[in-house]
Design goal:
Blueprint (H helix, E strand, L loop, with lengths): L27 H4 L7 E4 L18 E8 L2 E8 L2 E7 L4 E3 L3
Antiparallel strand pairs: 1-2, 1-5, 2-3, 3-4
Length: about 100
């Protein structure tokens, strides 16, 4: 049988939450709002699958470029390219640095 090369391939340990933080998701993360040009960090929350960015963007810092429905378009710099990542606010955190 051929090996699977799916979207979440080899993420068993990467998308695991620490023991003690596996409780119910706080409603505060759904209520957070970002403005255009805010700097944010992409932190994938593995307990919420909807709007989850690809694992390669975990920890990347970007800028909110657009608000689209309930989600956000985040521009990040990946090498020499500017990439636009579509994600929901559950996977974003305001960058304070």
């Amino acid at each position: 049988m051929p090996k699977s090369k799916g979207y979440r391939n080899r993420t068993r340990s990467l998308l695991r939450k620490e023991k003690g933080s596996r409780s119910i998701v706080s409603p505060d993360i759904y209520l957070q709002k970002f403005k255009i040009n805010d700097k944010v960090v992409i932190l994938t929350n593995p307990s919420i699958h909807k709007g989850m960015p690809h694992r390669r963007y975990h920890g990347k810092i970007g800028r909110i470029a657009e608000i689209r429905g309930k989600g956000y378009i985040v521009e990040i710099i990946d090498g020499n390219k500017i990439k636009r990542i579509t994600t929901r606010p559950e996977h974003l955190k305001l960058f304070r640095g």
